[in-house]
## 1
Amino acid sequence: LSLKFGDVGNLKGLVIRFLLTTNYYQLSVQNWFSLHRLQLLYNHSIQATFNATRIYAPASYSYHCEHVSSLQRYDALLIPSSANDLSKLWEVTFIDFQIQGFNIQEGHFAYAKDCASFFSPAILMGLVMSLILLLVLAYALHMLIHLKSLDRHYECKASPAYFAQMKDSDMGDEKEPLRSSGNESYELRNQQFCKIYI
């Protein structure tokens, strides 16, 4: 697949050539296409060649990626084929890249297989946060299971009223007549809580 731009600045006859291959894989029971190599040509000669990595899709699909580049900050899907050629002098970046080499119908792209990784930074951060929340939940359950409950036979009792102890000298006989003006009174010595007068 060749994209011909003609004359661009000092570049005469600039051409970007995509070399696509197709293979049949028994596990998926279908054909897959892949971008094998990218070449830059101008002045009717090949100036740079890049090997493509991880650019593939089912033959009935198209391939889409936000950035296909030779730069490391864009994950470098294009790698210079050799240290001896001029590929090192070129920086190639395609933005909103989509390609389909086979089974094109009515001039439109088929459903696109995106290059987004299953473990993007956002997904990894979500997994880490989920793990932290699970650890907190497990710790809370552990604390609840090992929580000591109150004795089930415990009954709330009101504290008894406090009464001062009687003097030792008063602990003699069980009863002693008290002298008063006409009435006979007795004090019960074995009771600590009250005194009864008759």
## 2
Amino acid sequence: SGGTVPRQRPPPSAMGRGLALLLLPLALLAALAQAEGGKTAEKKEEEVKIEVLHLPESCSPKSKKGDLLNAHYDGYLASDGSKFYCSRTQNEGHPKWFVLGVGQVIKGLDIAMMNMCPGEKRKVIIPPSLAYGQQGYAQGKIPPNATLIFEIELYAVNKGPRSVEAFNQIDKDGDKKLSELEISQYLKEEFARDGKKRDPSVHDEILADIFKKNDHDGDGFISAKEYNVYQHDEL
């Protein structure tokens, strides 16, 4: 869909759902898992187990909440070792871009990829309460109460679009709210900087996704409060 992105939240469509699946295949039920799986998500004793498979000699910068990460990952069911996901077979094999720590992937991956540096490889074990919980994810072939294993290779750690610095950089007119045009321009600059060729629909889908998830009052702008994920930062 190379056309303009509507200011209001885009209506669900088969194409929109397909693009969302292509873009963020593990994020589709993250919010639902948190909402419906609240009982299991509160289990403090369950945590992500992390094994570092490869650590570069120069480990910098380390990833933190709000950073924009580029990574490949394979997902396996711990019960039988079967692979349910491989990022290299999706989206023409391009590594995935996502913002860390804001719920664009399942909570276990948000935790597992903290303090990780470019070139690092990890094997992580994620309990059901930090993955898809009691309901599982039938479309992704993940049964209820499934423990997941991911093998992750991180390629890039960039300053994400969720920091105060980034907000002020995007907010060209300084009115403390982000318009569709301002965020669109920011995405174009980010894409140009990493030099990878992308279909225009990817830009449109990310732009629509940002507004869908952040423009809570539906006024066509994203306020500092709506956009900022850092509770301690002041704008």
